[in-house]
Design goal:
Structural class: alpha+beta
CATH superfamily of the largest domain: FAD/NAD(P)-binding domain
Bound molecules: flavin-adenine dinucleotide
CATH topology of the largest domain: FAD/NAD(P)-binding domain
Number of strands: 20
Helix content: 25-40%
Strand content: 25-35%
Largest sheet: 8 strands, mixed
Length: about 400
């Protein structure tokens, strides 16, 4: 098979890239190791920054997002039962976030790609990338036990944290940064009307809790748990009791309901400081992971793609390689900012040491500063909705 851009991975990164290239008349083939049904039902992120929604609008893939997504103009921060609200629109000149499940984003993007004639090959696992230091790279992939080859001008490694693209980069061409946090998140989806109109992040002496939502009938909630904890230790009853304690504040009443998804996710920060080599370019989780506290994972993947698509389009349409050369540097500014914000949010809200310890008092001082300083609240709001220009 021959194409201009071979894309590995049909997650938010690969699917957005394909649509942007297709719109510019550039041919691509996308390989996805899982089935369409599997990727369309994989529950992950749900918070879309303003820039991400703007891009989906521009690509004309946001009709359902506007019908079913929930726009949030603020967020609640609780600390030891005291609640404050950060008003995004007031502090950021009208910018906001939209709550819309990643599996719905993926469904919309796959449909748009199929409708617009982009070739996505499902259940096709890329096994090897070769010759990417030349102008004729190749992707070897397997489907139904048979080996095939995609010959292309560029390879986009959008294959997530466990993919092959990052491993194909020469080890000496990047530095790796990694941080494992000493806690995990127990996340649930429940058929329960949200007990709040906007997300609640709560610090509690028993640990962090987050109340998020997916629709008017479905709530998404999380509890900080130990890294060695398992879902077997958490009956539905125990989960609701714990959420009710950790989220409690004046006038708050938790709605409960049937839990239909329960999983524990470790918290980690990871990144490499060079996302390209020759004609191989990495985007999204293939190059970086952030703890979910700041809601940045999916949004960073889409932000990388804006740089990558613009660089590839400039190469084909204007015969210019400048943007391709600068791709990593352009992406890294936003990635480091998001790493810092995600790390800040994680340390602000998770219980790390005994109540009344030095660490606890630092956390409390940070919370009180957000409460009293419009400058600090603005810093949080602009990072949370996503910085406009980097
Ligand atoms: C359990 C979980 C929960 C999360 N929760 C949140 C959250 O609450 N908030 C948040 O902001 N972010 C969250 N994230 C992160 C967010 O989902 C990711 O940042 C986002 O999916 C990144 O998109 P991507 O396209 O880069 O990668 P992915 O979505 O991982 O897509 C990569 C695709 O490549 C495919 N693939 C891999 N290897 C190959 C191969 N060899 N050949 C072909 N295809 C391949 C995979 O099947 C996958 O479909 C979560 C992630 C996980 C894993």
């Amino acid at each position: 098979m021959k194409t201009q851009v071979g894309i590995i991975g049909a997650g938010p990164a690969g699917l957005s890239l394909a649509l942007l290239l297709q719109r510019a008349g550039i041919d691509c083939i996308m390989l996805e190791s899982r089935s369409r049904e599997y990727v369309e039902s994989r529950v992950r992120a749900g918070l879309l920054e303003q820039n991400t929604v703007d891009l989906f609008n521009e690509l004309q893939v946001a009709d359902r997002l506007h019908k079913e997504g929930l726009q949030h103009h603020g967020v609640y921060f609780n600390f030891d039962g005291e609640s404050i609200r950060i008003p995004f629109d007031e502090l950021t000149g009208g910018r906001c976030i939209t709550i819309y499940g990643q599996q719905e984003v993926v469904k919309d993007l796959i449909k748009a790609n199929s409708d617009r004639g982009v070739k996505i090959i499902f259940e096709a696992t890329a096994a090897k990338i070769e010759d990417f230091e030349t102008t004729a790279p190749k992707i070897y992939f397997k489907q139904n036990g048979e080996e095939h080859i995609v010959e292309c001008d560029f390879v986009a490694g959008c294959d997530g944290y466990h993919g092959i693209a990052r491993k194909a980069l020469p080890a000496k061409c990047y530095n790796e940064f990694k941080k494992e946090y000493p806690f995990s998140w127990l996340g649930i989806l429940a058929n329960a009307a949200p007990s709040t109109d906007e997300l609640i992040y709560a610090f509690h002496e028993r640990g962090f809790a987050l109340h998020s939502l997916r629709s008017e009938k479905v709530s998404r909630l999380y509890l900080q748990v130990d890294n060695d904890d398992t879902t077997d230790n958490w009956s539905d009853k125990k989960i609701w009791e714990e959420l009710s304690i950790r989220l409690s504040s004046k006038g708050f009443m938790l709605h409960t309901g049937e839990i239909f998804e329960k999983a524990i996710t470790p918290m980690r920060s990871f990144m490499i400081d060079n996302m390209q080599y020759g004609r191989l370019f990495l985007a999204g989780d293939a190059a970086h992971i952030v703890p979910p506290t700041g809601g940045k994972g999916l949004n960073l993947a889409v932000a990388d793609i804006k740089w990558l698509s613009s660089a590839i389009i400039d190469f084909y349409n204007n015969n210019k390689e400048e943007k391709l050369k600068n791709y990593s540097a352009d992406c890294l500014r936003r990635i480091w900012r998001a790493q810092d914000f995600s790390n800040f949010m994680t340390y602000l809200f998770h219980k790390q040491a005994a109540h009344d310890s030095f660490e606890y008092h630092l956390q409390k001082a940070r919370f009180e500063y957000i409460q009293s300083s419009k400058a600090q609240a603005t810093t949080i709001a602009e990072n949370y909705v996503g910085l406009k220009d980097i």
